[in-house]
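Hi R.,

Here's the chain you asked about this morning:
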Amino acid sequence: MNRTVGVRVRRSVGRGAIFALGFGGALSAAPQLPTPVSASPTALPVTASVVEAADDPLPRQPRATVIIYMEATPPPPTVVPIAPAAPVRLSSARMSSSGPAWAVGPVSGAANGFAYGYCTWWVAHKRYIPWRGNAYQWWWNARAFGFAEGATPRPGAVMVMGISGTSPQGHVAYVESVNPNGSFLVSEMNWWGVPGGGWNRVDYRTVSSMAGVLGFIY
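And here is the predicted structure, written out as tokens:
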């Protein structure tokens, strides 16, 4: 007797295949030998269609490799605080002067942002000074306002001295003129090194030594 042999393929969870044999129809008179069916993965190419059973779970999707890129966040920049410049302290020796030196006494003038009677007021009376501070601080304050500075005296420049034993706040003077030999004439207020000078008094003197001078503001 003949009997129809049906092959049914089900996909398993392990991505293999299960084969089921079904018999139907009339039986043949002659005996039939069973036909072996291989369950090797090579018997079912990846592209072959697979019959899904009604009780099968959802079809298995092919696995894909997922690469996740994470953008590295750069570390915040290191902020280094800038310490204020320390005042320059000089020896107590005053600058030496040569040539004429005289005091002219008190002078009058309008307010300019500095206390009257001091060296800072006199220089601000002679030329425009947009910054503030004690005399020795002018050397750094002028830079912040874009003023040029140097070590050579020029007419109209500001001579700046640092702190010393006789000048606890430094000293500034106005350069009136420069002599051929390198000395220069300054006018100043509150300078006690000239007879008749001092607070609220203006004096003139010729400077021939750079001892104690930080430099000149142009």
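One quick note: Residues 1-14, 16-30, 37-53, 78-98 have pLDDT under 50 and may be disordered.

Cheers,
M.
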